[in-house]
């Protein structure tokens, strides 16, 4: 083998390696620049997580017979909140489940929702359930609740959300709600509120 040929092959390998190295360096710089841009946007705008909270809940009617059939009429006004002064947010795939003692009473859904900066949007539901048969445990729980005059329902739900600042759009993240609402049997108003979602 003439040594010239080897050295030419060597030069070619050299060229390929150098090209790859330069591309890698450019890529690395691009990633760093993008990271810095995201960090700067984050520091400047300090986006806060959008969330959903219960604005108002009212148990309009509760029918319960000794066969263990539960029927309710409920008003549930939720609110999608965006506390950001500069970031626009959107919510999608909203889904909420109202349960009594792990038995589904109502399923509430909504497609998507845009919430401009520093504002909130209502998600108002009025739900009338069909008669729902309670199992033995739930019947006992309902009897106990009615004796106390306070009926608890569990609200669980989730939504996807993200914020947007100019061309910067965050990834979608899930926000979850899980809380217990207590209603006075006499007038249907809630005992206490303060239920909102947590994000991760
Ligand atoms: C955001 O809303 C609050 C109360 O509604 C208001 O006082 C504040 O000025 C608003 N901020 C901006 C930047 O619009
Ligand atoms: C509902 O009834 C409870 C007790 O029965 C009472 O403490 C509460 O103030 C009433 N709420 C309203 C809005 O009338």
TrEMBL record:
Record has Transmembrane as a keyword: yes
GO cellular component, one term: plasma membrane
Subcellular location(s) per record: Membrane
Keywords from the named record: Membrane, Transmembrane, Transmembrane helix
Keyword hit for Transmembrane helix: yes
Chief location of this protein within or outside the cell: membrane
Protein name: Late embryogenesis abundant protein LEA-2 subgroup domain-containing protein
């Amino acid at each position: 083998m003439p040594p010239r040929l080897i050295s030419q092959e060597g030069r070619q390998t050299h060229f390929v390696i150098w090209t790859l190295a330069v591309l890698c360096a450019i890529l690395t710089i691009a990633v760093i620049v993008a990271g810095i841009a995201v960090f700067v946007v984050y520091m400047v705008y300090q986006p806060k997580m959008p969330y959903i909270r219960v604005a108002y809940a009212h148990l309009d009617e509760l029918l319960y017979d000794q066969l263990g059939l539960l029927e309710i009429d409920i008003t549930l006004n939720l609110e999608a909140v965006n506390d950001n002064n500069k970031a626009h947010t959107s919510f999608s795939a909203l889904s909420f489940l109202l349960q009594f003692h792990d038995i589904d009473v109502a399923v509430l859904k909504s497609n998507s929702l845009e919430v401009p900066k520093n504002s909130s949007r209502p998600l108002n539901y009025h739900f009338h359930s069909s008669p729902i048969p309670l199992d033995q445990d739930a019947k006992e729980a309902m009897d106990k609740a009615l004796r106390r005059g306070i009926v608890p329902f569990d609200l669980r739900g989730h939504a996807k959300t993200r914020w947007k600042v100019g061309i910067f759009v965050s990834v979608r993240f899930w926000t979850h709600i899980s809380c217990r609402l207590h209603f006075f049997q006499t007038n249907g108003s809630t005992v206490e509120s303060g239920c909102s979602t947590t994000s991760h």
